[in-house]
Amino acid sequence: MPQLKDIATQIRRDIVRMVHGVQSGHPGGSLGCADFFTALYFKVMDHKPAPFDMDGKNQDLFFLSNGHISPVFYSALARSGYFPVPELSTFRKLNSRLQGHPTTHEHLPGVRVASGSLGQGMSVAIGAALAKKLNNDKNLVYTLHGDGELEEGQNWEAIMFAPHHKVDNLIITVDLNGQQIDGTTDDVAGLGDVAAKFEVFGWLVLHTDGNDMDALVATLEKAKGLTGQGKPIAIMMKTVMGQGVDFMEGHHEWHGIAPSDEQLAKALAQLPETLGDY
Ligand SMILES: Cc1ncc(C[n+]2csc(CCOP(=O)(O)OP(=O)(O)O)c2C)c(N)n1
Ligand SMILES: [Mg+2]
């Protein structure tokens, strides 16, 4: 089994190559969350990539709520065995199963909900977590949300609902990169102290550096240990948009633009091939 850090590096290569290949897509948030996806899919989650079971009974589920970061999701799914790695080359092409934003219509293994219209994933995850309780299924439900995404109101209904209904088999994570589509989250619609807001709504809140693999794995494992105690869990992950490609780091401009040929070469020079390119 390759080291988690090497897997994350290959996922970052996949992201920049996929987005460059079709000159569209979202590299910034994808790169920032590459370590999280690696920790989750290659270490923390109890899941069965193949054969893919849409219901996911007796396995952990993951819902990507900020669907625009599909490149990192698709790479992590392919690299962990959900579908063939060469299919990454079809990203955003006509009739591909790898649509710009994930859909269920194309039946891509690993995708259990369409996302891209921000703000819906937490509600879906709460429903799935409650269904697991009804089915006496002891596995967990994980999600990822963008910080800009939390500016969407539906989240706050879900954040209120989950503690009230003691949804304690749910671990949601927030990508706190401080950036969103048009600028910093502070400039667009300041979130203030997000952790304090979750706490006052009744959640257990953990914090981690989302680009430090050891800290990430430790925090996710700690969160698992806190499930089943009557409260939903939220992990605040501090990340850097564009992490791993120096000229993309910390700039909201890389939210949703593709690198040029020259920029691709610069990016790949910083990301050694570890598992083999698609
Ligand atoms: C309901 C809804 N409103 C607006 C958008 C447009 N939109 C796409 S991404 C984005 C910014 C999201 O910011 P964040 O979640 O922080 O993502 P990051 O830029 O960090 O990847 C917006 C406003 C959308 N997709 N859905
Ligand atoms: Mg953001």
UniProtKB/TrEMBL annotation:
CDD domains: TPP_TK (cd02012)
Domain (Transketolase N-terminal) ranges: 6-267
Annotated SUPFAM superfamilies: Thiamin diphosphate-binding fold (THDP-binding)
Cofactor: thiamine diphosphate
UniProt keywords, alphabetically: Thiamine pyrophosphate
InterPro entries registered for this protein in UniProt: THDP-binding, Transketolase_N
Domain of life: Bacteria
Family, per entry: Belongs to the transketolase family.
UniProt-listed PANTHER family: TRANSKETOLASE N-TERMINAL SECTION-RELATED (PTHR47514)
Protein name stated in the entry: Transketolase
